Amino acid sequence: MPRISLENVTKKFDEVVAINNMSLEIEDGEFFVILGPSGAGKTTFLKVIAGLEIPEIGNILFDGKIINDIDTANRDVALTFENYSLYPHFTVFNNIATPLKSPMKKKKYTAEQIKEKIETVTKMLNINHLLDRLPAELSGGQKQRVALGRALVKEPQVLLLDEPLAHVDAKIRNQLRTEFHFLKEKFRTTTIYTTHDYKEAISLGDRIMVLNEGKIEQIGVPEEIYNFPKNTWVAQRVGWPEINLFECTVDIDNSRLYSPAGDIYCNLSRSVLDNLKSYEKSDYMVGVRPQYLNIYEKPTSERTEKAICGWVEVLDNQLVCSAKVNHLELIATTHNLDFSIKDNQELWIGFNDKRLMFFDKETKNNISLKNSEG
Ligand code: ATP
């Protein structure tokens, strides 16, 4: 399976820069996830790799060889689209067989070989009982499996999956996500998978590339992207409920942080202060994920701040609540479903300073990351 490299690749559509001067490497056999909102350039990226869009600038390399001039049919890639793109008048069998029968395919298969290959792939995807159906007779999840079957049956060197779970309901999505884990281990094909769902990215990606308006915001393993987001933009898009961000001033001499909006102090430990000292600034944006804010019904021995509950709701087996401290509204979550505080009642919140992220107030870059100024 090839290692894919991009060298300063730019793809424009008139004034829109869909891929903006991108350079990166995707390892042989890697499951590489592109995470980004609508319009970030995810589909264009896949099309550029597939040879369906030609970049104005830059090189694309497979195993170190420039493939800019090699057409799609000869790149040995398979691309599945978000809307499945199945042939409506073909049965499932014939949809999956199409790439094997293509006149462009160098290797020719007998009818028996095609049947065998389709049987293997469809058994694996649990659609072998649907071979005679037409796409209109399938559910969204089944259509997605057929599209995937059509891609896998080619045994491509590179698998490009464009938002494969975007249009299936939550239950099927979880099921298919699990199946992707299995496929990923089984095939070890170099795979590029796009999504706008950070949970999918975190769960599946060997590495994740976070994309914003054609530009790479960050590339890293899931833990890095979640725990060390390069800037506030990435931090806000990875994690739900969204990370709390607020301005603060750090008073190194008194080992504490002050939030003017909340009119609250938070003690900082030596290791946190050492990191901040080397940055030599006193004003920051501080970020804290709702999971790492401690909420209590009563004051505790831990240093806490009194807050007023704005609202509470149950989401994904946890309680999510808004806590207002003066002009600062913070979102916190707890798995303690017995937490009984309701709207407008008092509650207490505690900060774990080791879980605070500090961002430069101007650039919004995470100051604990080296090279985060770029
Ligand atoms: P989505 O999640 O909505 O599918 P995306 O991240 O896949 O979005 P792209 O489809 O790659 O984003 O589009 C990136 C940008 O390029 C968008 O601004 C889009 O409007 C523009 N674009 C894409 N294809 C074309 C095209 N053929 N002609 C003109 N503009 C295009």
Question: Explain this structure to me?
Answer:
With 374 residues, the protein is α+β, with helices and mostly antiparallel strands. The protein folds into 2 domains: 4-237, Rossmann fold, CATH 3.40.50; 244-373, Beta Barrel (OB fold (Dihydrolipoamide Acetyltransferase, E2P)), CATH 2.40.50.140. The protein has helices spanning 42-50, 92-101, 111-124, 140-152, 170-187, 198-204, 222-227, 232-237, 270-277; strands at residues 4-13, 16-26, 31-35, 57-62, 65-66, 77-80, 158-162, 190-195, 207-212, 215-220, 244-251, 256-259, 264-267, 283-288, 293-296, 305-315, 318-325, 328-334, 346-351, 357-360. A 6-stranded mixed beta sheet has the order 6-7-8-3-9-10, sandwiched between helices. Strands 13-12-11-14-20 form a 5-stranded antiparallel beta sheet. α5 links the parallel β7 and β8 (190-195). The longest helix is centred in the middle third of the chain and has 18 residues, at 170-187. The radius of gyration is 25 Å and the shape is elongated. The structure holds adenosine-5'-triphosphate. Adenosine-5'-triphosphate (ATP) binds next to β2 and α1.
